[in-house]
Amino acid sequence: MASFVETGPQAPVTEAIRVDKVSPRSRLTRTVRALIVIIVTFIGLIPVFVMGITAFKSRADVVAVPPKLVFKPTLEGFVYLLTERAVLTQDRLAEAQAHIDELNWMQRIALENGQEITGPSDYVFRLKNSAIIAGVSTIVSVGLGLLAAYAFSRFDVPGKGDLLFFILSTRMLPAVVVTIPLFLMYRQLKLHDTHLGMILLYTVFNLSLSVWLLKGFIDEIPREYEEAALVDGYTRLQAFFKIVLPQALTGVAATTVFSLIFAWNEYAFALMLTSERARTAPPSIATMLGRGGIEWSAIAAGSLGFLIPVVIVTFALRRYLLRGVTFGAIRQ
Amino acid sequence: MSSVKQATATGADTRLQSHRHLSDRAIQNIFIWPTLILLIAFNVFPLFYSLYLGFTDYSAIARQAPVWVGFENFRSILNDEQLWEYFATTGRYAVASVGLQTLLGFGLAMLVREKFKGSGVITTLILVPMMISPVVVGLFWKLMYNPTFGYFNYLLGFTNPATAPDWLGSRWGGQAVPGLALWAVVIVDVWMWSPFVMLLVLSGLNAIPEYLYEAAVIDRASSWFQFWRITLPQVAPLLLIAILFRTIEAFKSFDLVMGMTGGGPGTQTELIAVNLYRQAFLGQWRTGRSSALAYIILIIIIAVSNLYIKYLNQMRGEG
């Protein structure tokens, strides 16, 4: 290569080079490349696919050797996930079968395995906790983050660089390092295993993300719009609410969804700082393994329920994904 | 203040009026301080508190006030060979998984760099694994790895469960193969996070100015030369950031192992963060000692990131 640099082109340039297509590759290389990408993608998605089909397998099909690709789909896993059941005695079973028309689909599936539904499972309750905690904390952190991001974007905050770095660095702390003191603090303040405690924690957990992401979005809105409004007699707050906010809505939406996903997926804090009342779904999917044999189809059903919103969001947000996963530190 | 009170009482119109009294300075403070206060209360305060606890013999389940023991915790941790073992495991795990992620992520980025029909959808599909909750990922990979009815062995061609590897059990055909379980965790981490490296590299690739390649083509530089002299140096800063992020995460790694192995078999996948959890919240609840350990982990993370950042700045200085 060195000789090339020193001596320059050896042969006359005979082919015309289009500046807009500097390295025209043959159609074949392109096709091969695209094929490799598609194959790699599908290999990569096999585990997700496996989980998807496992959720619809019956208990016997899950543990079949070799693993089955063709099977009779059933909603057993979902019923196991969402309900508590009790085994029926012989005569009760016969009695229930006589009244099968009065049962709903969940009860029927349970009955096929000789069980009756006694109530909703813990999982339903924990899913509700997850929704409340993730939802409220996201709203608060995006709200606070929006205000701080605006101030950092538009004003000469003293020590701005350091403050922003401090905000980002909080995200780099290993969860376990802050959990020990937080656990003691929460115990003292009676916040352990409460919704409020988890909401506060997840709000802080998402704040750095939301400040950095939103600052990036607000930076992109030209200052001239607000300045014009200020000249026209708007106050700073009016300009913020009427000019900046509507323009930043895409950013707010993206930030909201990212925060929601992070709070929804969070496991370490939830495991260490909740036990019963405020426990969220991720640690309880994990503990489901411990109870009376492994209900793989129930676990897969639970995971699938967790996965689907995430896949939808990934597609909806693909333009902002890079910002989201690097906490807005890197822009696309 | 009184004007604000009055304003809220008399309605929207006057409320807007009263905000005229709010200087930019005041708005700035009102906007920033809630965020800073929350971050200080939940991050800075706990950091100092846990530094203090690191110097005591406190246990969160004992009804006893913390007793100052000086550097005793740090001394006992640094002399604990078992813990060094866990640090070494974490290091091996970090090197293997970050290394593989970098290679795979970079390769993927080079492949999807040129757009083809449907490449947008495909790229997004590649990104799905990193958006899933790590503990869920851990659990369903546990199913994949199951030695009798898991899919992983079948996909690799091991159709007889008796001679197939039991990944999470670190056994192969009845023989113990130490390290297999750690590799199993590495595979999952690579599966999950290579897309992240890809995403960062891809954004670096897209930012390379076209004229560099144009000039290279006019000079008839080979594509190999273009890769080494243009693509790689231009992407290097973002690649290094990706590696930095992933290394930090590897030292924090907790969810995945908890979902898959819980540290087992034996202590083969006992990463330092998992052990920290065990010391702090299970068994004896050695709060003081685990706070000290947490600080040591934190110092290592900061040291490693500083090294990276220094290297990164050097590279930027040259470029």
Question: Could you name the CATH topology of the largest domain in chain A?
Answer: MetI-like fold
Overall geometry of chain A comes to globular
Total strand count of chain B, please? 3
Q: What percent strand of chain B?
A: under 5%
Class inferred from helices and paired strands of chain A: mainly alpha
Brief account:
The complex is a heterodimer of chains A (332) and B (319). Chain A is mainly alpha-helical and 332 residues long. Chain A has helices spanning 2-7, 27-44, 46-54, 59-62, 76-82, 90-98, 105-112, 122-154, 160-169, 175-189, 195-219, 223-231, 236-247, 249-265, 268-273, 281-287, 296-316, 321-325, and strands at 83-87, 115-120.
Overview of this structure, please?
The complex is a heterodimer of chains A (332) and B (319). Chain A has 2 domains: 56-120, no CATH class; 123-325, MetI-like fold. Chain A is 67% helix and 3% strand. Chain A contains 18 helices and 2 strands. The longest helix of chain A has 33 residues, at 122-154. Chain A starts with a helix and ends in a 7-residue tail after the last helix. Chain B folds into 2 domains: 2-45, no CATH class; 73-318, MetI-like (MetI-like fold). Chain B is 73% helix and 2% strand. Chain B has 14 helices and 3 strands. Chain B has helices at 2-10, 12-18, 24-54, 72-78, 81-113, 119-131, 134-145, 151-156, 180-206, 210-218, 223-252, 255-260, 272-281, 287-318, and strands at 165-166, 171-172, 175-176. Chain B has a 3-stranded antiparallel sheet with strand order 1-2-3, with no helix packed on it. In chain B, helix 1 (2-10) runs antiparallel to helix 2 and helix 13 runs antiparallel to helix 14. At the A-B interface, helix 2, helix 3, helix 8, helix 9 and helix 10 of A face helix 3, helix 5, helix 6, helix 7 and helix 8 of B.
